């Protein structure tokens, strides 16, 4: 019987019915302390430190602070130091502040070769869906489940439904995978994928690089999906080859991984078709990632919306965002620009953003910052001279971490400040209380930084 | 986890959809390393700005896609520690729903018209054993995974239950599945 990629991975990891074995547990400082404490209080061990890895990302300052003990914010310092102590006590490898491999948990997994096709991967972080880009089953969990995985290396799970989104055609010039996933969420809604593991497929997906694919799987959760997946192929294998954590006999592993893609004739609970060639550069206007339009559109009018719930939500969002219905998106003027986050902070994102600068300067009205996803991405970018390009243009060049995606560190928006951000969430207050977030691709963010307002990257020379 | 079965009393109504976990418990309160003390920070900005007012009644009713966004279990801790025992909504994010059931905090999915009727009634009764929600003038049945229900009714410890399958886990680890993936300690 033909099977989906999800079914193959699920069945290969069933210890017994509804009990799933976990191949890799990624840990960070915010959602793990209570789980480690739970182990201590019940006298349990962490079952498989060799399938666990920890990093400090959410809280860390990006100002070059070299070690946890030197973090100025007392609570952040305590949380990162707690992670280091917990990791030491339970034998878990940890890449904390100052490590050459520290970084956002969803950036370091792939770059260290820990993320591999066919694996089950979990983390106490909703953007764990990122790792599905390699044909892994990867999803976010809460702290109770983090403790469960630590103690048992398994998770109690009931089988989710499956969805496949087929993208026909190719993305146009200047249109990125960020635009593809924003357009998809705009179409399906913020709960359109709830209860589903989603496989992204079709010509447009196959044409993407691994880092572009990660951006798509990363934002699956913003559409409510449990996990996003993309079939592994030559692009996947070439990206992985030579990375630290990959199997010693790489070619043999590739042969096994080639068995993973969904079989011809396998059925999904739901199938969706989207024409990728019709997707434009996207900008969010509201306070959920589903509140999104093409950059060439205008801010929508709530009065035109069908359901009372949508209307009320849109009215509240416009008030929060300080926007008038009917305003062309290209007239919106961000004062801040943030290039970073587990969605768009990898080396190719930084290369694309830097390439768009072409000797120009950040507008006087804008403060712009670039936060590499990991210490390795930062080092690579500096080797290529990208840091100089950014700094000469007027961008701040920062240390690695989650930074202004969620503002747990000092990188936050002030009340009322408007930001073009390459991150994943435009929720109220996400980037700072009263801050107004517009989600865009790295090149769109760069263009907004230089022009001082959003522009259609396709017509921007 | 404390066992739960019948939750009865007044209803608080938060008439919004897409209430995300960043609103339920803003990030500045995630720096704490404890599991308690979050109730006072619930809906911190919305409460402080006078945007909403909610009494700590046993039942909270809200709109679709409740608990979307971040996986922070702190959101469940904050709602529970504030005083709510159950939340009723037309839909939930998967992670929030799961986190709730790990804390003896009951998420109940009902169609929007039933949510509104319950909110309008101002009080109600949730019966987990019989999977019903009733209020003056109405009653609705809700679905819940039988295993999740059993664990909530018994206040069972997930980890202790799973460790009863220790033999099965060991057998799995002894097979090819046990060595799949990288060895993190060898990097």
Summarize this structure as a short list of keywords or feature phrases.
heterodimer, A: alpha/beta, 5-stranded parallel sheet, 31% helix, globular, B: 187 residues, alpha/beta, 7-stranded mixed sheet
Provide a concise account of the structure shown.
The complex is a heterodimer of chains A (461) and B (187). With 461 residues, chain A is of the alpha/beta class.
Please characterize this protein's 3D structure:
The complex is a heterodimer of chains A (461) and B (187). By secondary structure, chain A is of the alpha/beta class. Helix content of chain A is 31%, strand content 16%. Chain A has 15 helices and 19 strands. In chain A, the strands form 5 sheets. In chain A, strands 5-4-3-6-7 form a 5-stranded parallel beta sheet. In chain A, strands 17-16-15-18-19 form a 5-stranded parallel beta sheet. In chain A, helix 6 (177-188) packs parallel to helix 8 and helix 12 (347-357) crosses helix 14. The radius of gyration of chain A is 21 Å and the shape is globular. The mean pLDDT of chain A is 97. Chain B is 32% helix and 18% strand. Chain B has 187 residues and is α/β, with parallel strands linked by helices. In chain B, strand 6 (132-135) and strand 7 (138-141) form a beta hairpin. Chain B is built from 8 helices and 7 strands. Chain B starts with 5 loop residues before the first strand and ends in a 13-residue tail after the last helix. The chains are: A alpha/beta (461), B alpha/beta (187). At the A-B interface, helix 2, helix 3, helix 5 and helix 11 of A face helix 4, helix 7 and helix 8 of B.
Residue-averaged pLDDT of chain A: 97
Radius of gyration of chain B: 19 Å
Number of helices in the DSSP assignment of chain B: 8
Rounded to the nearest angstrom, the distance between the terminal CA atoms of chain B is 38 Å
**Broad shape of chain A:** globular
Give the overall shape of chain B, derived from the CA principal axes. globular
On the 0 to 100 scale, the average pLDDT of chain B is 97
Number of strands of chain B: 7
Percent of residues in beta strands of chain A = 15-25%
Give the biggest sheet of chain A.
5 strands, parallel
Listing every helix as H and every strand as E from the N terminus to the C terminus, the arrangement of chain B reads: EHHEHEHEHEEEHHH
Rg of chain A over CA atoms, rounded to whole Å, is 21 Å
Give the neighbour order of strands across the main sheet of chain A: 5-4-3-6-7
What structural class do you assign from the helix and strand content of chain B? alpha/beta
Poorly predicted sequence stretches spanning 5 or more consecutive residues of chain B: none
Oligomer: heterodimer
Lateral arrangement of strands in the main beta sheet of chain B:
4-3-2-1-5-6-7
Helix content of chain A: 25-40%
Low-confidence stretches of chain A: none
Strand content of chain B: 15-25%
């Amino acid at each position: 019987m033909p099977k989906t990629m999800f079914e193959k991975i699920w069945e290969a990891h069933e210890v017994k019915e509804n009990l799933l074995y976990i191949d890799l547990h990624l840990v960070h400082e915010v959602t793990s302390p209570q789980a480690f404490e739970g182990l201590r209080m019940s006298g349990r061990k962490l079952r498989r430190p060799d399938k666990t890895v920890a990093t400090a990302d959410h809280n860390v300052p990006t100002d070059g602070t070299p070690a946890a003990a030197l973090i100025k914010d007392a609570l952040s310092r305590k949380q990162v130091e707690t992670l280091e102590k917990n990791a030491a006590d339970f034998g878990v490898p940890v890449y904390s502040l100052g490590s050459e491999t520290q970084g956002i948990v969803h950036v370091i997994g792939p770059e260290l070769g820990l993320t591999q096709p066919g694996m089950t991967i979990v983390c106490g972080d909703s953007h764990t869906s990122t790792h599905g880009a390699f044909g892994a089953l990867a999803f976010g969990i809460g702290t109770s489940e983090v403790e469960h995985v630590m103690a048992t290396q398994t998770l109690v799970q009931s089988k989710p439904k499956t969805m496949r989104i087929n993208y026909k055609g190719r993305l146009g010039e200047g249109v990125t995978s960020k635009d593809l996933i924003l357009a998809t969420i705009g179409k399906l809604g913020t709960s359109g994928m709830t209860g589903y593991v989603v496989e992204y497929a079709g010509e447009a997906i196959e044409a993407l690089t691994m880092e572009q694919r990660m951006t798509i799987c990363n934002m699956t959760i913003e559409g409510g999906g449990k996990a996003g997946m993309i079939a592994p192929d030559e692009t996947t294998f070439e990206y992985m080859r030579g990375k630290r954590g990959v199997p010693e006999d790489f070619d043999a592993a590739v042969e096994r991984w080639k068995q993973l893609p969904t079989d011809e004739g396998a059925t999904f609970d739901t199938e969706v078709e989207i024409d990728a060639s019709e997707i434009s550069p996207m900008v969010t206007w509201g306070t959920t990632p589903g509140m999104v339009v093409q950059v060439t559109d205008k801010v929508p009018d709530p009065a035109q919306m069908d359901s009372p719930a949508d209307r009320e939500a849109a009215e509240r969002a416009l008030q929060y965002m300080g926007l008038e219905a009917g305003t062309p998106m290209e007239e919106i003027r961000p004062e801040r620009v943030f290039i970073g986050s587990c969605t768009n902070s990898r080396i190719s994102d930084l290369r694309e953003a830097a390439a768009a600068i072409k000797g120009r300067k950040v507008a006087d009205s804008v403060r712009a910052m670039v936060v590499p996803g990991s210490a390795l991405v930062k080092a690579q970018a500096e080797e290529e001279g990208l840091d100089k390009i950014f700094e000469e243009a007027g961008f701040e060049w920062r240390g690695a971490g989650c930074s202004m995606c969620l503002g747990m560190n000092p990188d936050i928006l002030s009340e009322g400040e408007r930001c073009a951000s390459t991150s994943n969430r435009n929720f109220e207050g996400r980037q700072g209380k009263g801050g107004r977030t517009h989600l865009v691709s790295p090149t769109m963010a760069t263009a907004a930084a230089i022009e001082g307002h959003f522009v259609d990257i396709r017509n921007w020379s | 986890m404390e066992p739960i079965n019948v939750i009865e009393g007044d209803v608080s109504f938060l008439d919004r959809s897409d209430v995300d976990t960043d609103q339920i418990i803003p990030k500045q309160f995630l720096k704490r390393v404890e599991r308690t003390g979050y109730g006072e920070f619930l809906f911190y900005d919305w409460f402080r700005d006078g945007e909403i007012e909610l009494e700590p009644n046993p039942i909270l009713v809200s709109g679709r896609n409740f608990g979307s966004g971040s996986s922070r279990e702190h959101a469940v801790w904050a709602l529970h520690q504030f005083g709510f025992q159950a939340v009723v909504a037309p839909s939930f994010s998967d992670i929030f729903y799961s986190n709730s059931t790990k804390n003896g905090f009951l998420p109940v999915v009902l169609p929007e018209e039933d949510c509104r009727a319950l909110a309008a009634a101002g009080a109600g009764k949730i019966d987990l054993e019989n999977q019903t929600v009733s209020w003056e003038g109405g009653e609705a049945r809700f679905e819940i995974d039988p295993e999740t229900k059993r664990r909530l009714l018994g206040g069972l410890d997930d980890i202790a239950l799973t460790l009863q399958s220790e033999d099965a886990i060991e057998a799995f680890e002894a097979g090819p599945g046990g060595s799949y993936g990288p060895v993190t300690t060898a990097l």
